[in-house]
Amino acid sequence: MNLISIKEFVELTTNNNPDINPKELEETLRAVLEEKEGGARCMNCGSPIWVAGSALVGSYMCFTCLTGEADGSDDFEVLG
Question: What Rg value do the Cα atoms of the chain yield, rounded?
């Protein structure tokens, strides 16, 4: 995973998806990150959740369960 700040992720995501509200995305990312830091786990397999993906789809899941891929080295994960 490539670590990225919440603000950077919001900017990249909303530039590529203009229908996404930046303020709402930032609020959701902060809430999901707080849940992860509190121990939230993937509802499918129990692994740590993927904050970036979970915030976008609205379900607490890990990278593999959300994407079906094992290698997330080209994808982003947000930090507080």
Answer: 12
